[in-house]
Protein 1
Amino acid sequence: MALLELENIHTYYGNIHALKGISLTVNEAEIVTLIGGNGAGKSTTLKTISGIIRQRHGTIHLAGEDLSASKAHEIVAKGIVQVPEGRQVFGRLTVVENLEMGAFIQKDKKKIAADMERVFTLFPRLKERRSQLGGTLSGGEQQMLAMGRGLMAEPKILLLDEPSMGLAPVLVDSIFDTIQELHRLGTTILLVEQNARAALTVANRGYVLQTGEIIISGSAEDLRTNETVQKAYLGIE
Ligand code: ATP
């Protein structure tokens, strides 16, 4: 059984039919990537999964449990945790306070401390800056903090929305290294990226979205060698 399963999801913004029957699966410990151009519906897919927008038709299951009608806070509590595009860290809270916000469901202080240590092992930079205000961190550090905050919620699946957006190339590499490390540790990830090349180097499988529909799906290798993907998303003629 897939850990996450979307079946025939239709999502609208008013009259705009943004998702036109999306079906996809993510298995445990997999990295699955959604690639596509601007406005393809990648962010809308993640927002629908995390309950920020409600689909008009279709179902969402997590480990067999139907979450199609669940509210956003219930979906987080079930273990689907989104790291939003644009990072959205709390600028006036310190690094530690931001991380604590991620653990808001967790009541056990020892567990919170252990989770924070784990995040600091993954992102030593955040440990160095633990008392610094979120708003004064660099773009790359804010991305690390947003991912760290997501991990503090002990996700069954982490939804990453454009983690490399706006980052210098060296930081992009470091974020993708971390995604690979998370994969090695067994974290399940649904990764939305415009940087298809980088996404397909870390992912096991992928789906290509175009104007609200999945037009191609397969293993990362299949997608890397697919002519349409090469032309449209990898810049290979
Ligand atoms: P990007 O990389 O540009 O964020 P995306 O693939 O994530 O692209 P979405 O943001 O999911 O695309 O947008 C899908 C479609 O829904 C687009 O046509 C977009 O214009 C529309 N859309 C997105 N958000 C809204 C909104 N709040 N109100 C109306 N239409 C929206």
Note: The pocket of adenosine-5'-triphosphate is lined by residues 13, 16, 18, 36, 38-44, 194 (CB under 6 Å).
Protein 2
Amino acid sequence: MNDKPSTEKTATYTLTDNGTGRTFELPVIQGTCGPDVIDVRKLYAETGCFTYDPGYTSTGSCESKITFIDGEEGILLYRGYPIDELAENSDFLEVCYLLLYGELPTLEQKQKFEHDIIYHTMLHEQINYFFRGFRRDSHPMAVMCGVVGALSAFYHDSLEISDPKHRMVASYRLIAKMPTIAAMAYKFSLGQPFVYPRNDLSYPENFLYMMFSTPCEPYKVNPVLARAMDRILILHADHEQNASTSTVRLAGSSGANPFACIAAGIASLWGPAHGGANEAVLNMLQEIGSRDRIPEYIKRAKDKDDPFRLMGFGHRVYKNFDPRAKVMEKTCHEVLDELGVRDEPLLDLAIELERIALEDDYFVQKKLYPNVDFYSGIILRAMGIPTSMFTVLFAVARTVGWVAQWNEMIEDPSQKIGRPRQLYIGHTKRRYKPLHKRD
Ligand code: SDX
């Protein structure tokens, strides 16, 4: 693989200033795949102009070797490997290793990595008391933001971000402890005792065990559900520079500690336009309630004056289909079969909603397709996971992506503190008016 992006092409930029045309050459950089990028780093110094791109629809913010998306073709690669091949053949911890280290592990590396993660799953006991400060009816994402941010108060020996060893220990801790914290947030909401992790279980098994077992009786993890959980984790593990990952990078660019950065990522993920969509999809399906009401909701989604949007539909990058949604739909059927659910009204409703939307001109023309969140909620609900925990699960899975991207950023020699500029449209300079002179 070529490490250095190629810079053979240039773009010419003409600034028409009071009729005097000034022309500038800008380098064009080519990556290994994907569109070329125009390097505007020297634009301001040379022309006195900024670029303006709200929502960063045309802006690359960093170099990365981790994840590639071709939104036109519906391709998603982690370190070059297609997502469907990983979902079919790999497991979540192997994918974590791949995202962190860039290559699939050998057997020995895999076993050591699994061991190292498993031996970081337990939390400092003092953290249990932290939970008592939350109301029982707190949204678990609120608890996640608080508790993950608070990890920096407990693990002082992994905060030195310039030390690769500290960074790796913090990364392992975050990947390992997220399921424990997530399950504790759930148990706290139920008023049940916290369940400690078990080192003899795999990562997804352990998560299901901590969520659903109680000290009162034995609990056996269903292997089909553990496999489905593992697959859901793989599908959500990374997705290049999405809102929460960009938040983690931006927070980290100031030198903030990893636990604080991941807490910032969790906060960003919570929004319904991002990771909160899986919860919103289920709420939407429940609100629609029956097939005959679908046209009413489709009409509302198309109405500019109505804030309602079809949750789980549309994507900034995918303009054909989201490859994760396809795997998710297949997994959904497998889980429902395993659980003997012959008739799941919400799944029927989702399939019908998808069919009607994909035949509608509005959705076709705007290239709006089901995204990763459209089917995940139905699977999670069938597994007994409450709606309020859906986005928490996304956060558990995405933690590896966040830490891999955070590590990559810190190791990038061109890394600088993130500091966008603005197009100012407020008042020009004016004089302060004393209170008695104001109307
Ligand atoms: C995730 O970025 C990532 O990679 C994210 C993610 C990841 O793994 O990290 O993939 C996870 O966040 C998935 C997305 C989950 N969100 C939803 O399902 C919420 C519903 N979808 C959207 O609100 C929307 O489609 C976004 C936020 C996902 C994408 O927004 P964009 O790229 O800013 O597009 P847009 O909102 O400007 O939409 C373009 C047009 C608009 O119409 P016009 O102004 O051009 O007339 O499409 C319309 C929108 O109104 N539109 C929708 C719609 N989504 C977009 N209309 C109805 N229903 C929708 N869902």
Note: The radius of gyration is 24 Å.
Protein 3
Amino acid sequence: MQNLIQSAQHIVIFTHMAPDGDAMGSALAMYHYLGGNAQIIVPNAFPAFFGWMPGADKILVYENNTEVCNPVIAAADLIICTDFNDPKRLGPIGEKLLANPCPKILIDHHLNPMDFATEVYSYPDATSTCEIIYRLLYGDLRETDEPLTKLNETIAACIYTGLMTDTGNFSFNSTRCELYEIIAELLRAGLKKDEIYNAVFNQHTADRVRLTGYALYRKMRLYPEYHLALITLSAEELERYHYQVGDTEGLVNMPLQISDIYYSVFMREERPKPGTPSSRIRISFRSQGDRPVNIWAHEIFHGGGHANASGGEIYGTMGKAVRLFEQSFPKYLKKED
Ligand code: 5GP
Ligand code: MN
């Protein structure tokens, strides 16, 4: 990796659609490691609660700046991809990425990466892509003891954001002691851990909190035999609460607070884009323990992901999505006592 970085002049960093904390953190950690000599491009907008992240104001959003981004992508002589395993997760950028023959570095923790990169750092057992980045730059996987940029408070903040969000603030997938050894090093570098929690989780609008209340009180359906919960929110309902990107982040996890609910699904309707006939229904799947949801997400909802956290989508009405869901869950979920 260090060799490819040293010989590049025009580096572009990509991360996945609907960027989450690990996507933002991993892309920005690389950006700061490169001394800011890179351009991060994300397919679509990131939530406002990541706006505080150092360098977030320099990120280009492809959907809103296509004309600016296309020549930057074409001129790249190194592309660094973080936190996704398939160019399809970049939406329309995917084709632009493949069209540029320059070397590509993939750093990711999703299973079975597609074969498109020159160098692949894929560790599906890692908590997050940010963990892999720490280990590659400063930890057990490092290639040099003289990093381009020493670990500092800025890079620590980016890395910590991914560790924190991809483990649900260290509530799952977070039992390995090496994780806490990394956090200890981040703290030594000046990490302001509690401020980051506050910036990500305690800066919401009143509308967002009310939307969460409405979704849980009025829109949560339980399927007790299957220990399953479903929440749906239509475009009209979201508009009623002045929905902004990220406002439903984490909602899918909330039904899992119920003692005998092990599976949770959340469906969100996006109005059709101009020129397209149908709404897009974005679907999030979560589960606990040995109850994988990724095959279900893949086979029925054109998606995939981790065993306990997956996503997918369909085009059509919410009614169609719910029918597909109700027809398919008995095949994919365990019926338990
Ligand atoms: P979320 O519910 O937060 O949108 O997604 C949860 C996880 O599922 C993500 O971290 C990602 O790994 C995976 N995922 C979400 N959407 C898709 C998709 O459309 N395709 C695939 N392959 N994985 C997805
Ligand atoms: Mn991740």
Note: The chain has two domains: 2-201, 206-332.
